[in-house]
Amino acid sequence: MATDVGLIAIGAGLAIGMSAIATAIAEKGIGTAAIGAMAEKEQLFGKGLILTVIPETIVIFGLVVAILIIGLAG
């Protein structure tokens, strides 16, 4: 029984951790491109901000999956 709880915790941690790493990789490229575009044309700030925030949904999905994993254990 105790090992089941440990494996569930590892699964939930991996769901959040891997999604956070994927978000960081996505934001690296998007952020670089957005800063470059804003250096050329300042009117693109709003679009750059929106495009930079979009990958954050990946972490939210990871959190939902982690909550579902923990909820299945209970």
Q: Layout of SSEs?
A:
Elements: H1 2-40, H2 45-53, H3 56-73
Would you kindly provide a written description of the structure presented here, covering whatever features stand out?
- The protein is mostly helical and 74 residues long.
- It has 3 helices and no strands.
- The protein has helices at 2-40, 45-53, 56-73.
- Helix 1 packs antiparallel against helix 2 (45-53) and helix 1 (2-40) packs antiparallel against helix 3 (56-73).
- The longest helix is centred in the N-terminal third of the chain and has 39 residues, at 2-40.
- The radius of gyration is 17 Å and the shape is rod-shaped.
- Percent of residues in beta strands? under 5%
- pLDDT under 50 segments (min length 5)? none
Number of strands: 0
Largest sheet: none
Coarse shape: rod-shaped
What's the average pLDDT? 90
Q: What percent of residues adopt helix (DSSP H or I)?
A: over 70%
Quaternary organisation: single chain
Radius of gyration (Å):
17 Å
CA-CA gap between termini: 12 Å
Derived from helix and strand composition plus strand pairing, the structural class reads mainly alpha
- H and E string: HHH
Number of helices: 3
Protein traits:
74 residues, mainly alpha, 89% helix, rod-shaped
Can you describe this structure in just a few lines?
By secondary structure, this protein is mainly alpha-helical.
